[in-house]
Amino acid sequence: xxxxxxxxxxxxxxxxxxxxxxxxxxxxxxxxxxxxxxxxxxxxxxxxxxxxxxxxxxxxxxxxxxxxxxxxxxxxxxxxxxxxxxxxxxxxxxxxxxxxxxxxxxxxxxxxxxxxxxxxxxxxxxxxxxxxxxxxxxxxxxxxxxxxxxxxxxxxxxxxxxxxxxxxxxxxxxxxxxxxxxxxxxxxxxxxxxxxxxxxxxxxxxxxxxxxxxxxxxxxxxxxxxxxxxxxxxxxxxxxxxxxx
Length: 245
Known about the structure:
The protein is α/β, with parallel strands linked by helices. The chain has one domain (about 5-195): 3-Layer(aba) Sandwich (Rossmann fold), CATH 3.40.50. It is built from 13 helices and 8 strands. It has helices at about 20-30, 45-50, 55-60, 70-80, 90-100, 115-125, 145-155, 170-175, 190-195, 205-210, 215-220, 225-230, 230-245; strands at about 5-10, 10-15, 35-40, 65, 105-110, 130-135, 160-165, 185-190. Strands 4-3-8-7-5-6 form a 6-stranded parallel β-sheet, with helices on both faces. It has a two-stranded antiparallel ribbon with strand order 1-2. α6 (about 115-125) links the parallel β5 (about 105-110) and β6 (about 130-135). The chain is globular, with a radius of gyration of 17 Å. It starts with 5 loop residues before the first strand and ends with a helix. About 40% of the residues are buried. The model has no long low-confidence stretch (mean pLDDT about 90).
């Protein structure tokens, strides 16, 4: 498979990739100059990006676009380019953490509510005790404070940046500052820091295996119902497009 092979779902690019290939691609690109930008779109983000050209373009400029959502796997089958598996953002992030620990590299946690990033760092170091955490910063800031935060990240000497501001704000932050940041890689992680901190429970294995993590998340956060309404619309649009072909 070519490194740049991608499929389009509702016009939004996604790497035609599985977890092993994603890890291989990351490990090869991370040492290279510049920021390796990783995005983890799910059905909701693809649905939104299909209507927002700026967001769609941003996703397309990422170095690695992993299919984080069972809906993308189903959609890929409908359009005749079946993905082997979904690559969940939190699992991929943990793979990155293991790589950073093994290679003596450091990570910076940025986002979520005050105290969450610090707690997430504390908990993840219980599993990866040699992981170097360069710093933490919560996700509550004013636009005029962004430059200062970028400066803090750079001053920390972090090799990798983990941004938990919610999509697409986190992806836009990385993209907008990619030429200023001195990290070697960055990823938007949504609620992963909350899971690591213990403020949000990850779905049990049954839900994970059957692609129902979205349902478990909805049970925990009923206010997400409006956002979840985009999912059936997404599938109907994919099916309609597949039939036209």
